[in-house]
Amino acid sequence: MSEHPILRYVSAGAWALIEPLFSDRAKDLLIKLIDFMESDILPSEALFHSQISPDPKKRWESVPAVLGSLQKRAKELGLWNLWLSGGDFQGMAGGEGGGLSNLEYAVMAEIMGHSAILAPQATNCSAPDTGNMEVLARYGTQAQKDKYLTPLLNGEIRSSFSMTEYGVASSDATNLGNTTATLDPAKNSLSLSGHKWWITGAGDPRNIVHIVLAVTDPKNPSPHKRHSLVLVDPRAQGVKIIRPLTVFGYDDAPEGHCEVVYDNVKVDVDSGVVGGKAGLGRGFEIIQARLGPGRLHHCMRTIGIASRALDILLQRVSDPNRKTFGKYLKEHGTVVADIAHSRAEIDQARLLVLAAARRIDTEGAKGAMQDIGITKFTVPTMALKVVDRAMQVHGAEGVSADTPLPYFYASLRTLRYADGPDEVHIQQIGKKELKRVEDLKARTDKIRRDSERLLQANGLTRAKL
Amino acid sequence: MSEHPILRYVSAGAWALIEPLFSDRAKDLLIKLIDFMESDILPSEALFHSQISPDPKKRWESVPAVLGSLQKRAKELGLWNLWLSGGDFQGMAGGEGGGLSNLEYAVMAEIMGHSAILAPQATNCSAPDTGNMEVLARYGTQAQKDKYLTPLLNGEIRSSFSMTEYGVASSDATNLGNTTATLDPAKNSLSLSGHKWWITGAGDPRNIVHIVLAVTDPKNPSPHKRHSLVLVDPRAQGVKIIRPLTVFGYDDAPEGHCEVVYDNVKVDVDSGVVGGKAGLGRGFEIIQARLGPGRLHHCMRTIGIASRALDILLQRVSDPNRKTFGKYLKEHGTVVADIAHSRAEIDQARLLVLAAARRIDTEGAKGAMQDIGITKFTVPTMALKVVDRAMQVHGAEGVSADTPLPYFYASLRTLRYADGPDEVHIQQIGKKELKRVEDLKARTDKIRRDSERLLQANGLTRAKL
Amino acid sequence: MSEHPILRYVSAGAWALIEPLFSDRAKDLLIKLIDFMESDILPSEALFHSQISPDPKKRWESVPAVLGSLQKRAKELGLWNLWLSGGDFQGMAGGEGGGLSNLEYAVMAEIMGHSAILAPQATNCSAPDTGNMEVLARYGTQAQKDKYLTPLLNGEIRSSFSMTEYGVASSDATNLGNTTATLDPAKNSLSLSGHKWWITGAGDPRNIVHIVLAVTDPKNPSPHKRHSLVLVDPRAQGVKIIRPLTVFGYDDAPEGHCEVVYDNVKVDVDSGVVGGKAGLGRGFEIIQARLGPGRLHHCMRTIGIASRALDILLQRVSDPNRKTFGKYLKEHGTVVADIAHSRAEIDQARLLVLAAARRIDTEGAKGAMQDIGITKFTVPTMALKVVDRAMQVHGAEGVSADTPLPYFYASLRTLRYADGPDEVHIQQIGKKELKRVEDLKARTDKIRRDSERLLQANGLTRAKL
Amino acid sequence: MSEHPILRYVSAGAWALIEPLFSDRAKDLLIKLIDFMESDILPSEALFHSQISPDPKKRWESVPAVLGSLQKRAKELGLWNLWLSGGDFQGMAGGEGGGLSNLEYAVMAEIMGHSAILAPQATNCSAPDTGNMEVLARYGTQAQKDKYLTPLLNGEIRSSFSMTEYGVASSDATNLGNTTATLDPAKNSLSLSGHKWWITGAGDPRNIVHIVLAVTDPKNPSPHKRHSLVLVDPRAQGVKIIRPLTVFGYDDAPEGHCEVVYDNVKVDVDSGVVGGKAGLGRGFEIIQARLGPGRLHHCMRTIGIASRALDILLQRVSDPNRKTFGKYLKEHGTVVADIAHSRAEIDQARLLVLAAARRIDTEGAKGAMQDIGITKFTVPTMALKVVDRAMQVHGAEGVSADTPLPYFYASLRTLRYADGPDEVHIQQIGKKELKRVEDLKARTDKIRRDSERLLQANGLTRAKL
């Protein structure tokens, strides 16, 4: 009798713990997804990369053709938009894929993480589109939904979220003040100017909208009510894509992470502010709501990336061509220890992610902020360690493009900043934990009083050793 | 509305994940246990320690009186023998407390870990008695059960497991050859001689039996069939308790971890070999079965010890008397970071333990060996880190007997050897993981072939970057 | 041709670096010291410990007899008071041993660290006496020198430094306000009251003086001018030794680290304030001067402790009786890696200590504060790691009194608080380093301007990748 | 009075230790070098990079013009070929720069590491040319010296060392068997065929010679006598540069690390085998001699790279534009702690390098193998940690090309494989250390016997605690 395919990916202990919480539909989708990954996605990776031109210009102008056929297949299999966990998309064209719990999706996303670039795109589960769809579904006007949300749900267009500012310490979002959208009440329009960077997807030829965080009410006494989200057509007058930024030398074409200047871009208030006129001043409120599950999605996929790195490591150290000094690499005790530690670290981190996902299911994203925060600063660091060990057993090949490992490393390294650097999350979690002290102290004080009473009743003093 | 008391001990994410797997009885017992800990056990700790004499002789001669009343209370509350998870004890006097799943007990054991010396004794859940009871229940004769198991289940006596040999590298159990029990067929008796050490509980005045691993069939071709388990009365002729060994500077009176010499101790085969005559040669088989859940019990309690250390840390850094340079300790960023890391590490480790416990529930102890092995080398090291941080924020007080922290540290440090050193488990887990390679390679090879086919079909070669 | 004996203790690279800085006398003393260690000190360790009574009372009442003969031998060999590096003691009876550079003494102290309890006592190089002698030599009146310094230099008496206060966060010395010495101008005397703890050596029967930090001028506007150092006879009316504190269960008899209450102890100003009347208000000034080299002495010896732990480890893993699964422990790759890392870590840390010692020689203790601070937070943590590895390869024996390792661990652990916790030194060194920024920025700005000029001159713009 | 400029780069403690070992000439050169770095090299970095074309073809075809003028300047200043420490080059044209001790050069190389790409090239101190020059000077024929060594010493040409084989675990050099040079005795020529990769510099238009390790005597019973070093013109018939490999996403144009196929390349024995006919079979002997100092040179520069990363970090965290939540980054305790740890780690690692360099000076490269091995596995890992911290404080900018940090990271990461992976060196050092056991055991046994005698003489037994 053959083992359940999920056990090729997820530790048996974790599966034993969560299996009772999986619906039959989710179990069915999971098996389909695994088969799709193994039969379609992973075999298509090489073609996907080969279809991106090495030419510095052309690589930004087209999209690998294989992606289209994979997307078609994913739709047929019902593996489309699996990330849609809430009720916001019900009844919406393209919203059929949803309805999984966050816990169920967590496992799917981990599996997709084994092909972290291609699988999310092929199934329409990739950032920043997922977060942008959430924003539009919850806060967009009907016209905005028709124009952007429907084609995003169908995977026909792509989008950017334009927040981080050049030269500004953007991890404190209240610092984001240099991009302004000045209202011309006569025309009911805004004039948007600003200098952003790290705008993921802004290089993509399919991109038709940037959701730009901009100050529309600079004098509002509350720093959290000054901003709005503005929808900008990247082909509009005044939008300049300065350059794709590189990450450890990688440009991530054709999506890219771009430096973008908005120079007096004209935007109509009703159609161009998320939520229309009523959305003015709600930028902060909306981005706060956007971040929670998105952070966790990254962590879910990261478990998959780390697992794939370990799979690659395992095969390398078992390769008879890689014997040194008469021994397989896997015969070295330090290699075996690295494997065991990687196994333990991945298993632990996965469980953290699953618990956080489950918490969103029972308490909502806000109620799960602590669990999400812990995964946020734990999971990428763990994965970097595993990938680094995998690189090391490859010798020089491990830093070259002949393995996906250095690219994994570079991508994961960005997660230690993206959506807030580790340090911010660490301080928040630590401070949250300190809030337990009052209750702890009350209990400890009572215990101490009770213990003194018992000592006295027995005619003893506390032992001083 | 007040929060569920379990959330004072277990992270909300973990609880959300496991709560659906808890029976109503287990939920009820959990609430009772928490109340028992806070109202009885923790307030009695000081008295318990004060009732152990500082005198080097007397401290081995009596048992703190408070223990008796706590045991009585635990029985009344139904918090007795909660560790009995299997069916081996059903219908047996004293076996009523059982029936929890390993997952349910894992949470109970963690809670007890907040008072890791006293709570397990007060509820009859402490090593080595639990493992010894398992041995007797599964392999003992009826007479042996009557004589030893019943009073053990009732908490009336204590016992030792006498395995590790002086001067022998005992982590490889096949090395254990210096303790022999030579058969005198005429008298149907054994003459036992050997030099053991680290025999926990051998100093205890309540102890009436050592279960001794000894070679009874030295010429058996299988090194795993040479040993038997022999029941020895510590007051018998020829038994010498040489000394209690210290762990760092602690002697763990009155239980102790003793060096013991058995010098021609006479034992009747029928009554004195576990399982009687039929038990001869089955020593290895029995000790293998004994180890799995026991290892996990240590890990469960260890999560509780680490949690208590963090609770102590949190209170110390919030103490206004401990300000330095005008700041609370908790206002230092590095302290906050230590708290966050401790929180994250405890939460991860707990989830590992829970997954392993769940695995025992679904697959049995043997099926869960990998999960247990991972917790075995992960959890104590994690807890040592947390305890060390807690010591550090106390300054010199942190290494003194004015906090329980150095004792926690010393106890936890032994877990990195007990039941096999970390290194052995690490190598086993790593090698187990390497067994996945064959299957991995088959899938990877297929993926690579498919990908070559796709490249060819598209007239492309694999991008060489 | 045999190797220089120093190479048994110090890495050849380090010795190559410092050998040209050693005087002939120092080289000669070094060889004598090594021989004294190997022929006398190390063989006497067991006797020394066996001469301390296990009886809880008697162990505080006498001093191991072997110490006396070792001290006599050390004096004969000229290995007495080697720590006296400055000129303060020249011409003083007992001051003959000095005159080594701090660099030279650093190596001697490391060698002594191989027997960290016995060797410093046998050679009169142990804390807190060394620091106390410095205080008396620099700041004491002639009468104080005659009474205390001369017998200290001769090893006839012992002393304590009484600073840390019970219940006070003493790592911020300005918090030390609860011990007061109120002046009675009529009698020219002080009445000293306070509650101190961690007073090393206060349990020792040879101790005849506590140097107590006490507030004598509570209203002085400068918090650094309120304290004086007061000389107190431990047998005086009002001095109560409450208890020896334990460190991980160890009491360090007969020296001890004691809790001491001073209750209206009368002290004459002229004879009892360090420096007499002129010393009033100079407590802080004096303790600052006292700390620098003392911190480094601990680090020097710590290198020796770590080295001995590694020596013990090396022998254990080569012991044929400790084979497991058919292999020597030294045949396991992870053990070999632990050895290599230990070697590298000890070698690095030693070099840090040597550089700091050399810096004191060239710049004085104040000029070397940064180098000393770095060693202070680096060396004990390093040594703890090495000792922990050594414990681990011993299995359970490694935490027992059958090896010195757990005692090493406990002692070293205190160094992470003693003379200021690691955290304080880390923050100081980090802030000191930040002072380089102004100069760095000036240079970087100039380089940037020059580079812009070069780009312009070549008609190029800075490459934006 | 201004501080010595070296103290801007090297810790005062280290300088105090080594300054007495510096000649006046070395001190003078050091000051000149620092000025050259600050006035010329560092300001030219941007121009250098801007002069490399972004075009995928052209970037391999020319060399930045600024390099020529920097080289000219370096020659004028006497800062040319400083690495020439031995006597091999005396009296040779271009060999004038040499004569520094390895210790003196270590400091120079660290300073150059602050501009690790440009400074070594500008001063003709860069790998692989330095090692190749050593090979030619020691083993080349006069004709080979004239043709290759003289222009290399003058910086007129560049060279490659072609050793690592494609698909072969090359860290065990005896595996290198796939590149063969078959002798045609009739023509006294070789026919070289093989597939190499990671051939640094093979992309460079200035390169006129590859020194290729090839099997010339496959049947020699000693696996260390089968190889020879063959000089190959990269423009010869049969040499194919397949591609530059990337390191992370960097191609290191115009030098590159190339995959190279040699397909029946004809080479004359007398002119084309290093050492001519007499050099046949000496390949292994020569490469062994080549590796020692080269490994250390990498470590020396690595200290400089880490130092520059720390300098960049310090400036970033002090930048008022980078405040978050109202605080400078440098006001966060964790940032300060990272700085302190970086300072301590760099200082320790530098001292290791200096001790190893000194050891080469006193014992030769062979005698210093242990010291070199320790630096080899210690220094790059240390530097990666420092660079990673520097990246982290930059947020996303830290992984982009707007700082040199990710490039530093990628380059340093290769050092954990280059010239043997860390693991090989770690095992070697650990095993070397284990060779001390015999001597240790003899001494320990003697000490134990002496101690037993002392115990007996005093009528005591060893205390059993």
Automatic annotation (TrEMBL), chains A, B, C, D:
Assembly with partners or alone: Homodimer.
Record has Flavoprotein as a keyword: yes
Acyl-CoA dehydrogenase/oxidase C-terminal domain ranges (all copies): 281-432
Presence of the UniProt keyword Oxidoreductase in the record: yes
Family indicated by similarity: Belongs to the acyl-CoA dehydrogenase family.
Name the UniProt record assigns to this protein: Acyl-CoA dehydrogenase
Domain Acyl-CoA oxidase/dehydrogenase middle, residue spans: 160-265
Native organism: Kwoniella heveanensis BCC8398
Cofactor(s) listed: FAD
Domain Acyl-CoA dehydrogenase/oxidase N-terminal per the UniProt entry, residue ranges: 70-156
GO molecular function, one term: flavin adenine dinucleotide binding
Lineage top rank: taxon: Eukaryota
